[in-house]
Amino acid sequence: MKTLQVDLGARSYPIYIGAGLHRDAEVFARHITARQVLVLTNDIVAPLYLESTLTGLGGKRIETVVLPDGESYKTIDSAMQVWDRLLRSKFSRNACLIALGGGVIGDLGGFTAACYQRGIPFIQMPTTLLAQVDSSVGGKTGVNHPLGKNMIGAFYQPLAVLADTETLTTLADRELSSGLAEVIKYGLIRDPEFFCWIEANVERLLHRDAEALAFAIERSCINKAEVVSADEHESGVRATLNLGHTFGHAIETAAGYGTYLHGEAVAIGICMATDLSIRLGWLSREDGVRIEELLRRARLPVRLTSALSPHRILDLMAVDKKNVDGRLRLILLRAIGEATLPMEIAAESVRATLEQCLPPLKGGRSH
Amino acid sequence: MKTLQVDLGARSYPIYIGAGLHRDAEVFARHITARQVLVLTNDIVAPLYLESTLTGLGGKRIETVVLPDGESYKTIDSAMQVWDRLLRSKFSRNACLIALGGGVIGDLGGFTAACYQRGIPFIQMPTTLLAQVDSSVGGKTGVNHPLGKNMIGAFYQPLAVLADTETLTTLADRELSSGLAEVIKYGLIRDPEFFCWIEANVERLLHRDAEALAFAIERSCINKAEVVSADEHESGVRATLNLGHTFGHAIETAAGYGTYLHGEAVAIGICMATDLSIRLGWLSREDGVRIEELLRRARLPVRLTSALSPHRILDLMAVDKKNVDGRLRLILLRAIGEATLPMEIAAESVRATLEQCLPPLKGGRSH
Fold first, then answer.
1. pTM listed for this prediction
2. Which residues of B touch A140 (CB under 8 A)?
3. How many angstroms separate the CA atoms of A3 and B314, rounded?
């Protein structure tokens, strides 16, 4: 087991990475002092890992909430279901919530913990590669709104992150690739050596080589922890973690939550950010080719497969959290390993990229 | 205009107290740098103060949300209405929300600001005595749940509090008395000299003597700011501000939100806490008489007027935020001016107080 640390003063916490953590009673006991524990999970993860998790929690008063799987359940209605259960069970402000699942469960679990009685302790137990390398670390929690992804939420840090690499053995191939989009992102924004390592090892990762996966998770979490420790509430450098995400979130919302996995939408968004960076003369075409090539090798989409209107995408991008006074700001690339801070970008340039990267709408005109 | 300060490091902010603040363009300009401003208010306050507030905000891009008045609208559904409007208006993370109204608008406005894009700036403009002396200061925000008051929420501090004493001239008598319950509370928990001052000046307050009201608001806010600065997240002394509130919240929930005004339920709750403190031998009967007498003189109820089951009240008290592992904890009194920290209290003692202070259920047994 490896242990990393997210340094946030009084809100610091460890990230544990290792095989078998989801049933590690010793690690649970180290962090959960409350008697009341609610485990939030979904109907894909529950049959695989819930029972052994509960065994590790022997002696606690346990409630479980099992939601259907998928991004379309990351809603205020799902949060209300969790709050209802906590209140019906008379859970106190010292009760602990465990989020056992992927990014949807982690974001939703964190948000319900943040807002129940103005904040109860919670633990992230990410079971997907994407959640282990990205969403479980750093305290961004929230739910989606029909008009924008992650628009309702809170910064709220967990007590600990338990990334059990064993759970990746049961992950669907598409979910594994989705996680690789965020792994590649760290190389792109701040770790060029890691980008080269991924280029050399992407097949090992796709074949779930345990050693390669453990290294990729650890290196990703080191990058994430450094950025979050430097800028918890995203007033500066943390925004670079959102490379490709402004496009990606708009694509997810426009296509309907669940059509693209988060990492798939981010991969397409990274290609759009790459196209725009080249268009503005900041990134070389050669680097652009390398980026797209690595995403393809990770079995990720690099173009939208369905027709979406550029007008609709631009409209959804107008509520991105990085914008100021309604003016669009994007993270772009100056090189592999070097991202810009959010830049105000003219809508015409973004539109040119969208028209380049979106398949034409059937019947001609895009709006 | 008086200015007090809530000291919370990077989250410190001023409380302004004075006449005419709700249309003070200079004070607005000092705190609102964003172009996008949403004003949340209700249909009682809007006809009186919205137009002049908007005049003071000239040059901004303004959206207004006017909710029906009342505690029964302090819900997740109302929060969703505000988030919808913010998103439809494409408001950014630097947009400012102004909560113009009483405790319901302030708590709801603070919560929607806390969770929109994980937190946007907001300003409290309390227009009731209760909100000016208590709920607008200290960053407790939230909405009610059918099973418990303020159960969904966040600690989230405003940029500034603008308490315009002019708005008290239009306040209903019952609302004025409701605010006095919280004013008296400060005397009871930590300021015996202020308690004596209220005993000597309660009629002036009821007659809305401007000087007396300004003094009561200032002294209350000084007390609140000191307690909040010492313990922002209520790990200790801040809980004493909840004297009478565990009973009060249960009464509000059991009777249906809006049956009793918040301060009325708190007044009855303070009498229950007083009865229990005497019952446990911690407070003299003479002090108990003084407390009840002052609440009566402030035209507040000291007993429930409708029949509620002690069993239901106890059941609702079991989800109070001060409880630990589901065990009931209450704030009690050792003297006028001295509250205890939350104490674990046997249910039998609480039941004895409830049976003393509740009118009998029609038809006999209360179980």
1. 0.95
2. 118
3. 45
